Amino acid sequence: MDADPQVLCSPCDAILGACGPVQGLTVFQAKGFPYTLPELFGADPAAFAPYRDGMFATLRLTSAMYHRFHAPHDLQVHHVTHHSGDTWNVNPIALKRVQKLFCRNERAVLHCRVGAPGQRAHPLALVQVAAILVASLRLHWLPAPLGLDYAGPAQLPCDEPFAKGQEMGWFQHGSTILVFAPRGFRLAPGLASGARLRMGQALMHLPDPAAAPVTTM
Predict the structure, then answer these.
(1) In which order are the strands placed within the sheet that holds 107-114?
(2) pLDDT confidence tier of residue 201, bands split at 50, 70 and 90
(3) What is the DSSP string of 64-113?
(4) Which residues, in sequence order, are CB contacts of 175 under 8 Å at separation 6+?
(5) Catalytic residue of the set 67, 74, 136, 175
(6) Which of 2, 10, 67, 70 is catalytic?
(7) What is the pLDDT of residue 52?
(8) Is position 175 annotated as part of the catalytic site?
(9) Is 63 marked active-site?
């Protein structure tokens, strides 16, 4: 893991897909294929408002990759929202053909606060998206897997702290993690769509501590 406290690491091994600034509330899964934060997160503005004009990254885990994911920074997961849906393939061809694919698929949104004790806190969302053959997600602090057979509540409040690099859960197969950070975060230098990332490699840089506001999320 990149130990720099100003670095948000990749939570998994992945191929970097669409990434960059969120345009208001609009994000692109591929060129010409937009979706909106309310469509992905749900209608509650509290869920998506922190990421208006923020930064995002699409991390695709192929079937041959390591399927576990880890805390990209010291963080606390304070809420999980489960969205039932389909299991469309999430490969690049499908992303260029199926409108709003991530918003249609089975997914879980992990709402987090990033920052070690005594540091400024920032909201962060990790959206775990299911795909064909990948409809089961395990989170260490939940007793049951989240997937097509899940029949529990959609809203799952929690209070789970993780140290940077600590394992948070795993997919049963390759899938996708969407990372959303608020305005002020920036992609690590040299990263662009198509780059191969290893878990622990720098993904984004946090805002300058002297300028970053404290959030109470």
Answers:
(1) 155-162, 75-83, 107-114, 122-129, 176-181, 55-60, 14-21, 196-197
(2) very high
(3) TS--EEE-SSSEEEEEEEEE--B----SHHHHTTSTTHHHHB-EEEEEEE
(4) 60, 61, 67, 90, 128, 129, 130, 131, 134, 137
(5) 175
(6) 70
(7) 97
(8) yes
(9) no
What does the pLDDT look like over 135-173, one tens digit per residue?
Answer: 678 999 998 888 778 888 999 999 999 999 999 999 876
**How far, rounded to the nearest angstrom, does the alpha carbon of residue 199 sit from its chain's CA centroid?**
14
| pLDDT at res. 80 | 96
Both structure tokens of 91: 């490969």
Find residue 34's DSSP bridge partners: 28
Count the Cβ atoms, other than its own, within 10 Å of residue 134: 24
Given pLDDT bands bounded at 50, 70 and 90, which one contains residue 196?
very high
Which residue in the list 2, 10, 13, 111 is annotated as catalytic? Answer: 13
| DSSP-assigned letter for residue 119 | S
Question: How confident is the prediction for the chain on average, in pLDDT?
Answer: 90
The Cα angle at residue 176 between residues 175 and 178, in degrees rounded to 5: 165
Is residue 10 annotated as a catalytic residue, yes or no? Answer: no
Which CA distances in Å does 211 have to 54, 105, 150, 206?
Answer: 16, 37, 42, 11
pLDDT at 135: 62
Q: What is the pLDDT of residue 93?
A: 82
